[in-house]
Target: Propionate 3-nitronate monooxygenase
Amino acid sequence: MILDELPVPIVLAPLAGGPSTPRLTAAVGEAGGLGFLAAGYLTAEGLRARLDETRALTRRPIGVNLFVPGRPADPEIVARYAAGLAEEAARTGAGLGEPRFEDDEWAAKLDLLTAAPVPVVSFTFGCPSPEVAGRLHRAGSEVWVTVTREDEAAQAVAAGADALVVQGAEAGGHRASFVDDPADRGEEMGLLSLLQLLRAAVDVPLVATGGIATGAGVAAVLAAGASAAQLGTAFLRCPEAGTAPVHRQALASSAPTAMTRAFTGRLARGIRNRFMHRYGDDAPVAYPEIHHVTAPLRRAARAAGDPDLVNLWAGQAHALAREVPAGELVGLLAAETDASLRAAAARLRRE
Model:
């Protein structure tokens, strides 16, 4: 497996929606980690172009992350929520986008990745069918599935997952849950609790993600049974990332985070702002329809540097993100991880 071959047990989270770039993916890979490209929100042709650019920058293994399509939302529910945003649209002059359901060019992207395979294809927002996993296996790709609870893990392993990305509630950005249903969510589980439960329940490698920003955090999840740590927020301030300036500024603060559906209609963690506070309680489960509705507002706010209308996705430890090149960050994390593990071993020997 790729995880057994990594010089450094660090995986770059996909970071769909702007921060993901070929330069960032390549830099993490060249430093010894595993770089991922986000396919989410791209067309299949856009993904092809980014794959070509990344392959020109590095010969190291890379991964691609796909969004598993969901189901259309009730148009009346979406329309009511959109009507409540009229004041914001008028204030910014940006207008609102048209709500629409689409599958993120699922079939075309699968065709691309079976014709021009990458070492790893990971999935978010659901579990690929055994048939899809089989297609990718035959093309030579490993299949990773992101999970947030035990029943999802069992389903993913049964479908043919080679590894699980275990997402704790501390993670920034969208929850990877197979079904975004408030009535069925229960308690959002923290990373270490979930990691321990899954290590006892499944017999595939685990990649831990959520709130990891330092080598000490990487060491902690390795000690708890993970084969590697996946970091996203920690890389958002790197110069290779496509993170918007207003987002970079917010990441450098100690502002608290919260879960919300206000921006996209799907549960996600970001830095608290006025939009989340005002509309979070009203936002229905309606992804990607609400994502398309709010897109013009968010685009205008990023251009204007207004943090109160931007989805400032960030994990709970975002204040620890460092503004250094991605390759340097991987090196720092590797050294910190080694030091933390050595210190823990020394303490155990003393005891």
Summary: The longest strand covers residues 62-67. DSSP finds 14 helices and eleven strands in the chain.
